[in-house]
Amino acid sequence: MMRKPKLGQHFLIDEVAQQAIVDALGDVSARTLIEIGPGHGVITTNLAASCRRLIAIEIDAALAAELRFRMREQAHVEIVESDILEVDLAAHIRPGENADVVGNLPYYITSPILMQLFAAGAGGLLARAVLMMQRELADRLSASPGCREYGLLSATTQMNARVETLFHLPPTAFSPPPDVYSTVLRLEFAPRFRDLGVGAAGFDTFLRACFAHKRKTLANNLRSAGFAGVPIYSAEDLRAAWPAEIPPLARAESLALEPLAALYRALATLHPRAE
């Protein structure tokens, strides 16, 4: 079967890596699994043999048809032919349950898929995910404040999940080989909004303002971009709210989530609508 380049398809052919991804989910005998982009089903077969229920989401019509035929005797496996970004995950998870996710994320839409998973995790629909993605992007998800790779995606990810890097894969692990190395990560969804005393929607928007321009200081970013209907922050606002633990010329890329949340809470007392 021919690959369709427009879909960003690179099929994992390394059998050791295939099994390692399944093993990274742990005991799923009583779990519902959601597989993103199953392709020819090399991992799907192992997942179906080990879980209670499996929803495999495949955008390619030909591959979806192939999977339906291969899984025709597996009553607990559902093949959903759709773009993952258009799937209502809640509609596939039974009331009172949550699911785990596994997938080889298309390089060109990894970030939007992550945002979708974070929203589902925050809503209690997902417990964990084992995901493969471009190594450069994976490094950003797990980066620490002060590292070159740390930015908005790092902060957003770590606000929503605990990140563990499992292993890396060379291009030769795939057919056709991509131009990049890949990394497999495990995410344990554990939103920190309540712990840090911030509202999810407001703080997400605040983070975007904090990281809007990488070369600007945090104060300059906040002075040049309002959020959630609040006008641009004035110098007086920032002086009144600025936590002692944040240096005056700090950039957002150097700061952990805790001091940023402290600044957000202080600014919210000045502009309650922001929360």
Helices, strands, pairings?
Elements: E1 11-12, H1 15-23, E2 32-36, H2 44-50, E3 53-58, H3 61-70, E4 77-81, E5 99-104, H4 110-122, E6 126-134, H5 135-142, H6 152-160, E7 161-169, E8 174-175, E9 182-189, H7 200-210, H8 218-224, H9 235-241, H10 257-270
Parallel strand pairs: 2-3, 2-5, 3-4, 5-6
Antiparallel strand pairs: 1-8, 6-9, 7-9
- What is the straight-line distance between the termini? 51 Å
Number of domains: 2
The CATH class of the largest domain is Alpha Beta
Alpha-beta classification: alpha/beta
Low-confidence stretches: 1-7
- At the fourth level of CATH, the homologous superfamily of the largest domain is Vaccinia Virus protein VP39
Per the CATH scheme, the topology name of the largest domain is: Rossmann fold
Number of separate helices: 10
Strand content: 15-25%
Question: H/E element string?
Answer: EHEHEHEEHEHHEEEHHHH
Shape annotation: elongated
Specify the CATH architecture of the largest domain.
3-Layer(aba) Sandwich
Oligomeric state of the chains present here: single chain
Q: Nearest-angstrom radius of gyration?
A: 21 Å
Query: Strand order of the main beta sheet, please?
Result: 4-3-2-5-6-9-7
Helix content: 25-40%
- Tell me the number of strands: 9
Most strands sheet: 7 strands, mixed
What is the mean predicted local confidence, pLDDT?
92
In a nutshell, what does this entry contain?
It is built from ten helices and nine strands.
